[in-house]
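re: ur question from yesterday

yeah so i grabbed the chain u mentioned. its 657 aa long if i counted rite. heres the sequnce exactly as i have it in my notes:
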Amino acid sequence: DRGYAFSVRGLARELACALDLQYRDPAAIDVPAAEGHAFPVEIEDPDGCQRFVARRITGVDPTAPTPWWVRRRLLLAGIRSISLTVDVTNYVMLETGQPMHAFDTPSLRKRITVRRAEKGEKLTTLDDVERTLDPDDIVVADESGPISLAGVMGGASTEVRSDSTDILLEAAIWDPASIARAVRRHKLPSEAAKRFERCVDPLLPPAALERAARLLRDHADGSIQPGRTDEGVPRQLPPVTMAIGLPDRVAGVRYERGVTARRLSQIGCQIEVRSSDEGTPAVTAIPPSWRPDLVEPADLVEEVLRLEGYETIPSVLPAAPAGTGTTAAQRRRRTVARALAEAGYIEVLPFPFLSPTVWDAFGLGPDDSRRRTVSLLNPLESERGEMATTLLPSMLDTLVRNVSRGMRDVALYHVGQVVLPKAQQVPVPEVGVAGRPSEADLASLRAALPQQPTHVAVVLAGNRQRAGWWGPGEPASWADTVRAAEIVAEASGVSLTVKAAELAPWHPGRCAQLLVGDLPVGYAGELHPKVVDALGLPKRTCAMELKLDGLPLVERRPAPSPSPYPPVLLDVALVVDAEVPVGEIANSLRGGGGDLLEDLNLFDVFTGEQVGEGKRSLAYALRFRAPDRTLTVEEATTARDAAVAAATERHGAVLRG
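ran it thru and got these structure tokens back, copy pasting raw so excuse formatting
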């Protein structure tokens, strides 16, 4: 995946190194001195264009056919023949690795300028598509505007036509990162871009243009003009110094004397062997112009090992270090994941990055702490360059993707980390790969790391219980997300309490805050209808997110001991105001029922004329059991009455007849 290897020139060099053969560079041709300029060119953006070279050929026969040997070689390389001029530029690109572009000289207006595109500028490329340019795009322009998307594709206004006789050939060196971004932005891959985004030899353009010009002269009766435009200065690659025995130490192999210097010379490096400051032999290598990837001693070591053959490195199975097993936090994570899977949720691994526009869809306020994110310098997708402060955006995106593929009933979960930025940004040192970082560098890196706590989230849509011969399905509701949180808490060995709350993106009337003691650890409920519409989610989508690292870490839990005594099961229906949260009623029942109330479960919610306007009936199944004896019905009834009395005192609950 190297730019120089995208050519016969580069492949021949690699083959010569592998077989220890003499290499003759096809680009080593005599390039006559220029007599003036071929065309006026100005580089306004030297960072985007390191070098721009142009030659002019006049009197080209537009009807001249492409020689069969050129067409055949292009065909074998997967490139179709178009016209002699275009075929020559493609042929020389395959031969030398230097992409070129041919302009119809009479179509150019006065002078060429290399610059960044202006916002809103448009260019119709050779594929007859009008493209809106980005200010990050590098363009070749004349007085009429952009005429080529640099390094990617030329423009239709200056293309070589069937009657073109005056040709301006251009060979340039473009910034690889800018070309790669332009290809992704415009979704426009090309053979030229493949090479530019992997780096092209900056010393190659004059020789490549001379080769192309001679082919047009020989096969199209063209006249090579003596002028040559050559703007920009190729950058000298810095030397790299390493201990001459470093490849031996890395590979664990004792190479013969002189192997390191010989192999580095074969790939084109200028070598100087001398003693280092410590008195040990060291080699200083100046990388060749086509190898800008050689920047560290590790890069030189890789080349020596590669050319000597990885198969010569012995395979030694290292002894396994004594381990301590998984940590308590790791065991808890596995237990939680297994519990959710057993409850019917499917684990997903969503995309960990997000777009900042999602916060507006979530309805977050401008001061919401979740908007403060860590930005990536080189994101995989330009529109998703933020680290997630919550798992919900990526989980909901995964939900939408599954629903779009025909899934109607979806229950997903994910246990993963979020990234919370520091209150004040800490400077990050630049650490090389030549050796182990210093303790000071390691301390600075640790201090700059953002917090990365582990969260667990679930999302639900459609039916929680599918329909079938057993009856109609049961739609997913906010209560299912609360139950998912309780499953997480039970798997973690802690007790969870629930109370009504309001927090975007949840529905204000169907949102529950999750607490361990007095510590808030998460939220669950049904999403707000506006959020559902903004994200294209199914109606009544529900979600839960909980801070797993916020739960107390219980390393040792007593094993549950089954009681030998039978339970007493009693049902109770309470009429309460519709605004009273269900969780608070349940907490009151637990408090009033005392130690004899082992468990309770809400199995029915009823509203209607029978209970009155603004009221609802909540039906609970209560399970009573004594740890040391068989509980009598009278004792269970007394405990039930105490539980109802507590709910009546705190919330005005009335026992329904």
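noticed a couple things. The two ends are 78 Å apart (CA to CA). also The mean pLDDT is 90.
anyway ttyl
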